[in-house]
Amino acid sequence: MDTHCFLHQIFKPENFSVADLQLITEQFTEVDFAKNDTLIESGKPANYYYFLESGYLRSSIYDTHGNDITTKFFCPLDIVIDWNSYFLKQPCKERIVALTEGKAWRITFNNFMKLFHIEAFREVGRTRLVNSYFELKSHSLAVIAEPAKDRYLRLMQQQPALLQHAPLKHLATYLGITDTSLSRIRKEIAKSP
């Protein structure tokens, strides 16, 4: 898939002038990555954000006990970004690593700023930011207030392909449970009619 074809799924041609759309697509660079590649490193400012064309990624952080905790999964068409680091130039607290091989399109902060005068571009960014906030808030509340089985069933419904690519231990930490609990939940679901 070429740049224009993929990025036109994000930046819909009907919302942009031909010149603006060309300027936008010219700012992105194709990045192929392998399983276990790091796209965003913890402890360093994020210099890029990405639109994920193919593959699966996860962000994670070490808790106070040294456990590797999954904070988010990224699937095709997602924006892959550490919002605070990219815009405020602070070191990332999380790292984002590839669960599979794949392809993304990245943009530097300087190239992003070249596009900020385009109103429709800003609107795409605002929409993505708001959606990210609501997803994060919803997940945070679910970990506190919903049974683990319900959280897993929702993940199965919303991102079924992810379950084929993410190891059990990463899924468990994302859901806020142990591997053993997740195994038990999966067995219960498999047995139910």
Kindly list the characteristics that best describe this protein:
193 residues; alpha+beta
What report would you give on this structure?
This protein has 193 residues and is α+β, with helices and mostly antiparallel strands. The protein is 48% helix and 21% strand. The chain is built from nine helices and eight strands. The chain has a four-stranded antiparallel β-sheet with strand order 1-8-3-6. It starts with a helix and ends with a helix. The relative contact order is 0.16.
Topology summary:
Blueprint: H1 3-10, H2 18-26, E1 29-33, E2 38-40, E3 48-54, E4 57-62, E5 68-74, E6 79-80, H3 83-88, E7 95-98, E8 102-108, H4 109-115, H5 119-145, H6 148-158, H7 162-165, H8 168-175, H9 179-191
Antiparallel strand pairs: 1-8, 2-7, 3-6, 3-8, 4-5, 4-7
Helix pairs in contact: 8-9
Share of residues in strands: 15-25%
| Mean pLDDT reading | 92
The order of strands across the largest sheet is 1-8-3-6
Number of helices: 9
Low-pLDDT runs: none
- Radius of gyration computed on alpha carbons: 18 Å
Roughly how much helix do the residues carry, as a percent range? 40-55%
Which series of helices and strands comes N to C?
A: HHEEEEEEHEEHHHHHH
Q: How would the global form be characterised?
A: globular
Look at the helices and sheets and give the structural class. alpha+beta
* Ends apart, CA distance between termini: 40 Å
Largest sheet: 4 strands, antiparallel
Count of strand segments: 8
